[in-house]
Amino acid sequence: MDDNLKITSELIPLNNKKPLTISRWIFLGSVVLALTAWIYGYFANGIDALPMIPGVIPGTVHVEVRGNIFVGMTDDGKVLGYAALGKGQGYGGPIEMLVGVDQDGIISGVKIISERETPGFFRLVLNNDLLGKITGLKYTSPLSLGQDLDAVSGATLSSEGVAASIRQAIHPIASEGFKSPLPPENRPIKFGIPEVVLIGLYAAGYFGHKLRSSVWKKRIRWGTLVTGMVVLGFIYTAPFTIAQVISLLSGYWPDWHNNLYWYLLIGGILFVTTVDAKNPYCAWFCPFGAVQECLAQITSAKMYRPRQWSEFFKWLQRGLAFTTVVVGLALRRPGVVGYEPFATLFDISGTQLQLIFLAIILVASLLMYRPFCYYLCPLDPVYDFIAESRRWIREGWQKWQKKTSK
Amino acid sequence: MAKENLEIVKKSLLVVFLTISVGLIFLIWNENLAGTNSSNPSFYRKSAVSDPSFSITQTAISENIAAGTDVSPAEHKNQKSQTATVVPGQTLTATPTRTPAPTKTIDPTQQWEEDQSNS
Fold first, then answer.
1. B100 has a pLDDT exceeding 50
2. Out of B14, B33, B51, closest to residue A54 by CB
3. Which residues of B touch A (CB under 8 A)?
4. Rounded to whole angstroms, what are the CA distances from A68 to A170, A174, B10?
5. A377 and A367 in contact (C-beta within 8 Å)?
6. pTM, whole model, 2 decimals?
């Protein structure tokens, strides 16, 4: 195994020699700050949907709240239609929508109440007129991607979130407004190629790093890296991101039937990192890491980290990661704060700034080994955090055991 | 000497790379956060009418009224009717709860006279 691999796959503890020093105070302080941001974000969110009813039921002058639905009426009390709120899981968190259906059962209007998506990608959904395509459909339509709606390329999860929130809103309208309940939504468990590949990569990474033969270790590692890059990167655009960590902390857990991959990815990383103190993802199958390594192979670029500045760079990376998590928790918008250029590369879409950022990283990858991973990636400090927590708990447990044995 | 110079170049390039990258990260954050003030994008049919007199009423018992099975809300069930003795010449100011406070002051003498003339 080469030195580079050794450094990426082993978790480096914050400070080996001084267990209760500045680094641990910073650790505690960051937990307190993150918790404060979480609480702030929890209470600082919310929006009044009532004034938006005329926007989805045209001609509404009076709105009556009836159970879970809103009834739009004219001035003389004539019912024009029904509206309800629905929630669906997007990329960065729940997408909440207001849906209006007229007396003929036609969806007369839809309105986004709140969303937590990355603006650049959510704009694709809006520019693609997905909302316009929903309007005019019967409320009894499937309202599903691949059936009567098309996913927007580059924003599949956001499109699914929009469709799911519309479907959720339609149910109370059907049962309480039209008095004809729709059958419960059939939610088959989505288990396909990405899930199978992900499980295979975990297994290969877990057993691969235990191999004694460095030749086979290297071969398997290149196999997992290329598979991760092609399947999880270019085909499915499903790498691990800081937005997923913030979603997890914010409580935005998607429906597991449709998002088993999300649980396998995050659960797998947390499980292996906690139990084994090894980070299988970064070194063995991170798609963006694989792209950087492929570029480094072209020029035989080596890792470069001046020893005298090493601490500064480490804390710079941690500072970026911490800011991302705290702002993400406070605003409850995981998709907004993530800055990784993963989707920009694998979907070849993004804003000008994101494209420039990606170009700089790719050029730097020709000069040094994995520059993004070693200096900028917000996920590396997350692993450090888990490793430090694990070490601390373990030390506490050992001390407690010693005391009780005496 | 050449090795030292190479090291200086490497370090300089690293500093430039990191400075530009961190600057871009801040700009990306700024760009994304500026886009968070969305105006709740929506789509509705062109027949939408914007009515300035739009008002909202919350009537929890309306379904019963519509169905003709109206019952008084539980909060009113145990209430007894209230009576007030009005002494001619005394001014009564009514301040009902749950409705806007009236600004009109009723003169009971005048009211009594009006009622008498109406009957």
1. no
2. B51
3. 10-11, 13-14, 17-18, 20-22, 24-25, 27-29, 31-33, 35-36, 38, 40-45, 47-51, 53-60, 62-63
4. 11, 11, 63
5. no
6. 0.73
For residue B54, the distance in angstroms to the closest alpha carbon of chain A comes to 4
Structure tokens at A314: 């480490």
Residue B101 to chain A, least CA–CA distance (Å): 23
Cβ distance A160 to A143 under 8 Å?
Answer: no
Rounded-to-integer distance, Cα B61 and Cα A330, Å: 39
pLDDT digits 0-9 by tens, A189-232: 889 999 999 999 999 988 888 888 889 999 999 999 999 999 99
Chain A residues within an 8 Å CB radius of B67: none
| Beta carbons of B48 and A55 less than 8 Å apart | yes
Collapsing DSSP to helix, strand or coil, B29 comes out as helix
Cβ-Cβ contacts under 8 Å for A60 (sequence gap 6 or more): A53, A54, A72, A73, A74, A80, A81, B51, B54
**What's the rounded Cα separation, in Å, for the pair A75 and A72?**
10
Nearest to A285 by CA among A338, A240, A344, A340: A240
Residue of B nearest to A54 (CA): B50
